[in-house]
UniProtKB/TrEMBL annotation:
The modification 4-aspartylphosphate is found at residue 54. Pfam families: Response_reg. This is Stage 0 sporulation protein A homolog. SMART domains: REC (SM00448). It comes from the Bacteria. One of its GO terms (biological process) is phosphorelay signal transduction system. InterPro entries: Bact_response_regulator (IPR050595), CheY-like_superfamily (IPR011006), Sig_transdc_resp-reg_receiver (IPR001789). PROSITE patterns: RESPONSE_REGULATORY. It comes from Desulfosporosinus fructosivorans. Residues 5-120 form the Response regulatory domain. Keywords: Phosphoprotein.
Length: 137
């Protein structure tokens, strides 16, 4: 496992590139995947430290990918990203233990960076965290 390896999984190329460039500048090793199959292959082969995972993508959805990641690399921290915020569904997924960490799009990269550092520093102490840029006005 490469320390501080972030895998960005999103079908939106712009979001992948933005996050990849930002986290590269922060000193992280970053890989990108545009779909679930590619993401799972990278997780299986390379065991990233942290995965930023879009909830809604064509083909395999975020929750399906998350379940596979937990089987393949249970130590990997997964942060779900979504622009489609449905409080009831999200609350249910959190209560069922499917999602531990999530961010709502659009997000502020600096706030995502802070969350990532917190998660990496406390990786032995899982924390349920919501990052919603509108709450930082």
């Amino acid at each position: 496992m490469i320390n501080n390896y972030i895998l960005v999984v999103d079908d939106n190329n712009g979001i992948r590139r933005l996050m990849s460039e930002f986290f590269n500048q922060q000193g992280f090793y970053v890989r990108e995947a545009s779909d679930g199959s590619t993401a799972l292959q990278l997780v299986m082969e390379e065991k990233p430290t942290l995965v930023l995972l879009d909830l809604r993508m064509p083909g395999l959805g975020g929750l399906e990918i998350l379940a596979e990641i937990r089987d393949l690399a249970p130590e990997t921290i997964v942060v779900i990203m979504s622009a489609y915020f449905d409080a009831k569904d999200l609350k249910k997924a959190v209560e069922e233990g499917k999602i531990e960490h999530f961010i709502i799009k659009p997000f502020n990269l600096e706030e995502v960076r802070i969350l990532i550092y917190e998660l990496l520093n406390k990786s032995n102490n899982p924390l349920k965290q919501t990052l919603n840029p509108s709450s930082f006005a």
